[in-house]
Design brief:
The chain is mainly α. The chain is 70% helix and 0% strand.
């Protein structure tokens, strides 16, 4: 994972929660998000599962992309921009289709 991607999420997070009693939970959610971002750079099944993670419209499951972004107060679009997924037309078409139906 590039330093830029990690810095974006941490800097947004630190601005919102300078001192947080539930830091461990936030750290876990950040780790899930960092892992998915890192998995995008891999090949095969792992990369496909990472794409499925970002495409999943579920916001109820605590470890879903949308739920993590909501809890960390990070706009999903910022994460997609930092990963470069917004530059992938095929991904963005799927993302819009899935998320338009849900919202």
């Amino acid at each position: 994972m590039s330093k830029n991607k990690e810095t974006l999420i941490i800097s947004i997070d630190d601005d919102i929660y300078p001192s947080d009693p539930v830091g461990s939970e936030r750290d876990l959610l950040k780790a899930v998000l960092f892992s998915a971002i890192s998995d995008l750079e891999k090949e095969g099944y792992v990369a496909k599962e990472a794409l499925r993670f970002f495409l999943n419209p579920d916001s109820e499951y605590v470890f879903s992309f949308r739920s993590i972004c909501e809890y960390l107060r990070i706009p999903p679009e910022h994460v997609l921009e930092s990963t470069g997924l917004v530059d992938n037309p095929e991904f963005m078409n799927s993302y819009r289709r899935v998320h338009t139906v849900v919202e």
